[in-house]
Amino acid sequence: MHPDEPAPWTPPRTEPGQPRQVRRILKLFRPYRGRLAVVGLLVGAASLVSVATPFLLKEILDTAIPEGRTGLLSLLALGMILSAVLTSVFGVLQTLISTTVGQRVMHDLRTAVYGRLQRMSLAFFTRTRTGEVQSRIANDIGGMQATVTSTATSLVSNLTSVVATIVAMVALDWRLTAVSLLLLPLFVWISRRVGRERKKITTQRQKQMAVMAATVTESLSVSGIVLGRTMGRSDSLTKSFAEESEGLVELEVRSNMAGRWRMAVISIVMAAMPAVIYWTAGLALQFGGPAVSIGTLVAFVSLQQGLFRPTVSLLSTGVQIQTSLALFQRIFEYLDLPIDITEPEDPIHLDQVKGEVRFENVEFHYDGKSGPILDGIDITVPSGGSLAVVGPTGAGKSTLSHLVPRLYDVSGGRVTLDGVDVRDLDFDTLARAIGVVSQETYLFHASVADNLRFAKPDATDEELYAAAKAAQIHDHISSLPDGYDTVVGERGHRFSGGEKQRLAIARTILRDPPVLILDEATSALDTRTEHAVQEAIDALSANRTTLTIAHRLSTVRGADQIVVLDSGRVVERGTHEELLEQGGRYAALVRRDAQLEPTRS
Q1: pTM of the full structure
Q2: Can you spell out the DSSP letters for 443-486?
Q3: Where is the ABC transmembrane type-1 domain (predicted)?
């Protein structure tokens, strides 16, 4: 990281208002409101059918059995069976539809977050740990699955059941209903407090999971394993991971136990309510109150017991929603990230790119507070020409190359392609026009052919072979047991550094961009491998505008123009011979390079 680069990204501390957040969550379901309406109808139908059962039971106890009406008894019993069947069928259908809707919402969220991150500038990823990003997509969205897929339906279903049941209870006996609902406001207050407590703990838990995910991603990668073992830090890393895991254990226990005793008290009270109802009815009869028939009492208790399950579920759902709000907040933080690099409203599309690149009084800094990384850069690279940029570490060489494909945007001045500001071009034009081969070659854990076709998905086998031959890697690939179907391994670790570089070059040849950026593509290679890779680079550079960032000056001597950067400014420019004659900084770099060359063989 450059010394002037900003600190790692941290999410904003201010929480969005809860009503606004709830509205935003509900907006996620808007595309599926038709299916949700069907779910609502099924929920309402199931609630009405289930509430009818106690009334059928009342008629059986108060009329059909005492009066010996066998036909009515059979009809009422059949009605109870039919009610159970319909309730089950409606429940299965609503589960199918609601789960489908929930999974589609999950898909929309994952895709939205991934798409947002794909549009972020390179600066965001230099400030954010990879594991943190993965945790947001996997753990946070995964943690919302139960809420998104079932909580909304459960909320509507239980609320409908509660309302229908209370109406039925009032219809049977309003006095017993008042006794049954006496403590309900207290239960609601308790559940809200438990929900807020769990929401706070969930936020801490997800942050801890993100830290663990980052540790796993970094330390259990191929490079991380090699570094840990060669540095003798495997035990230390294991101990550090154990400490992080221990912290997660505590948070998980706290999360699961938060308010558990208070919710248990609610369950006990609700379960004890039938005894209270019987006691109340008995006292009312003893003190001269109106008598309650056996059928009415049994039907009421049945309704009251039916009220118990959805009420407790409704209170638990409220707690779960409070918990899920913490997860939604973390997802919305990513969805609300400002996009630094965007297409203009009316972008320019170039069908044919000649390849002239210009830097016109370019300035760049990472934020408004840091000093300039580049200052007053004026360089022109004609179509088909070659520019080499050299200089000490931290001079701004790689940053300069990142401005052309808009991995960063300039802070001042402009970069043009064929006379058009790159900020005015559409992304498709930039992607087609500019190819980048860097020192850190990235290969996917896939076959050689799949890695090459990442540049051109519809490439034929013949095109793959031609590109590999131009990059001087075809013979090696063909000698492998599986040929082009060989899996390269994590980050290409089954191949040597030079082989990976030539695969990257073959991939870029397949892309066939008119502008080529070589960012220290051979600096990590030994001299023999460098020569092989350099031949592949020469084949790639032919008839293209080439911008080369180099540590090894032997690779840039044939450039049409060489620019020496120091502290973000151009201090020398010219051809290799002209700069040697000047005897300045470039000449000093050449002498240093010559002294180091024997050690690289």
Answers
A1: 0.65
A2: --SSBHHHHHHTT-TT--HHHHHHHHHHTT-HHHHHHSTTGGG-
A3: 37-323
